[in-house]
Every structure is written in structure tokens, then in C-alpha cells.
Amino acid sequence: MASEIHTQAFDPWQAIQHYQQAHMAAGKYGATASFVGTMRDFNEGDEVQVMTLEHYPGMTESYLDKICEEARQRWDIMDCLIVHRVGDIQPNDPIVLTCVWSAHRAAAFEACRYLMEELKSRAPFWKKETLPEGHRWVEKNTEG
Amino acid sequence: MTITVKFFASLRERVGQAEASVSSAEPISVDQVWAQATSNMAMPDNTLCAINMQYVDGNQQANDGDEVAFFPPVTGG
Fold first, then answer.
1. pLDDT tens-digit readout, A18-58
2. Which of A56, A84, A128 has the CB atom closest to B69's CB atom?
3. Could you say which architecture CATH assigns to the domain B2-71?
4. Which of A82, A76, A107, A114 is nearest to A95 (CA)?
5. CB contact, 8 Å: B73 with chain A?
6. Computed from CA positions of residues A12, A52, B9, B16, in that sequence, does the dihedral angle turn out positive or negative?
7. CB-CB contact of A112 with A98 (8 Å)
8. Does the CB of B45 have a partner CB in chain A at under 8 Å?
9. Does the structure show a pLDDT above 90 at A130?
10. Which tens digit of pLDDT belongs to each residue from A81-95?
11. Are A61 and A137 in contact (CB under 8 A)?
């Protein structure tokens, strides 16, 4: 189980591959489910040039770990990984990765969705968008 | 006793400070910490509060050495 905060751009597919090679025993897991959130260049009808992600260092890490632990208690999963960007993010940059390994698909799918939804509702991150006209804070999450 | 206060994101900009320190002779509630740190500014309805990085309600008591944080609804992911 791991959660990582990255201040620089990351490659989610490479992150999955590295974690899998380092932590998962070959031949023991049968399902890998992942979700990648990527920055769009528009929101609510406006062009977004840059997005700045702020967080609460310390509390963020502790909540991401807590969410991973909860997923492990609720589903029969073998391991999970969360990676989240902070700082200035450009359109098309990955923002977040949640990935779950399990023996069978149902647990991996469900736990992966759980990690993402809990992260969005509880982990202390905030998005600020840079538009051609200036800045604005994102006030609420969009419906899943 | 001394309590460290932190403000994040849009709330930090609204309050005009990222960090403050509040002194009190006895333990005080999170709502009272807000009032002291912001000179009685009205707290926005959707404000989230934490003591030592755990979510709490405004009536929770803060003690000496605690870190109390105030921030708007979270929007990560």
C-alpha cells in the first residue's frame, strides 16, 4: 500500500509498472484496476490554461493512507497505490492515479472506485484555475 | 496556552493570512479559535475544520499546542 504526492509531472502507466514490479509477486494477482484523472483545457464552458493544486501537507498523506487501509478492510484486495499531483498542472497532465490489485476483478473495480470517490470527498486538495480573464477557485466537485 | 492556526486555499485569501497563533488562558472551541484568529470575521457556511489534521466540528475543544486548520470544501482528484 502506498500513497505519493508528486510536485512534478508523472507518468501513471510507468508508476503502475514500477509499483507492480517492486511489490507484487508474479503469478499471484489476477486483476489490476486503475483510474487516471487528467487535466482538461476547459471547465464550465471556460478555457483553462493552468490549474494549480494546493494541499495540506501531512493531513493529505494521512488521509490517503487511511483511505487505502479502509479499502483493504472492505474488499479482498492485495495492494493499492494512489499518486496525486500538486503544484502547477498543464492541460493533458495526469492529476491522479488510483490502482488496485486483487485476485478477482470485482474487488479491484469496486475498491478502485472507492479510493477515487473517498479521495475526492475527504483528502485536503484544492484546485485553482487560471483562465484568460484571471484566476478562480474550483468550489465543488463535479458529479461522478 | 498557544494554538497554531492554518488557513488554506480560497479561505486563506479571504482571511488574508496563511498562519496565525492564538493565545488563551484555557482550552477553547474551534469556533472560538476562528473568531480570535480572524478578529470575528463571519465563518463561511461550508468551512471545514481540523485539529491536528483530523476533521472536527466547530464545537470541538482545542488544547495547548494543537494545530487548528480551516479550509473550503476539498476539490482534489
1. 999 999 999 999 999 999 999 999 998 999 999 999 999 99
2. A56
3. Roll (3.10)
4. A82
5. yes
6. positive
7. yes
8. no
9. yes
10. 999 999 999 999 999
11. no
Q: Which of A48, A64, A126, A135 to mutate to test the interface with B (most CBs of B within 10 A)?
A: A126
Task: For residue range B34-51, list pLDDT tens digits in order.
Answer: 999 999 999 999 999 999
What are φ and ψ of residue B31, in 5° steps? -60, -40
Contact B76, A125 (CB under 8 A): yes
Residues shown for chain B: 77
**Domain segments of chain B as ranges:** 2-71
Question: Is the pLDDT assigned to residue A141 strictly greater than 90?
Answer: no
Inter-CA distances, A114 with A69, A107, B27, Å: 11, 10, 37
B69 inside 8 A of chain A by CB? yes
Has residue A140 got a pLDDT over 90?
Answer: no
Q: Domains of chain A, with CATH numbers? A: 2-137 (3.90.1170.40)
Confidence of residue A143 (pLDDT cuts 50, 70, 90): confident
**Residue A144 pLDDT more than 80?**
no
